[in-house]
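Batch job 17 of 40 flagged for manual review because the log was empty.
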Amino acid sequence: MAGFRVGLAGVRTRVAGVLLAAGEGSRLGRPKALVEIAGQSLADRGVALLRAGGAAPVVVVTGAAAAEPPGALIVHNPDWPTGMGSSLAAGLTALPGAAEAAVIALADQPLVGPEAVRRLIAAYDHGASVAVAGYDGQPRNPVLIARPYWPEVIAAAVGDSGARAFLRSSPELVTLIECGDTGSADDVDTPEDLERVSRAVRSLRTPPG
């Protein structure tokens, strides 16, 4: 059944994906979701990342630009100018009732590898209710959050904080999963970032997914 993953303990779980792709890219000069690297938009790459890692279905939250990755559920956030928090809330709210947890990823981090998503889902299969990908011990993205905590996440998601406020207020819930060997959480915020990340993407043998 699509969306179900069998963990090492043999427990089936259903984990959805949420891709935040609503920003206008003010420092980049154009909406990030539509930026192409190696012939693939950042929105398409983000959906492929989540799918390849085992998350399904995938919700893409749009705002400044109408990105429409095939096969994803598109949710437009009319409040996108208020920051990432409203997009996170829109994405979690749109997920189907069968989803037990969600892996949240950002469209502007194309160097994150599918293995990071797999490791977060495996951590959930083994009992972690909140799992965060770490790089050299530093928490970054993506982030997995089990459904029971979504109301708290939504309530705390204001401005550009996203899930950060919730994670900081509940450190006892967080399981840090090292993913530094699977990729990088470098952001594409400026034209210089885009050039650097594009070179790194092109150097990969295969795209995510």
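Reviewer: the log was empty due to a logging misconfiguration, but the result itself is present. The chain has one domain: 4-198. Unflagging and moving on to job 18.
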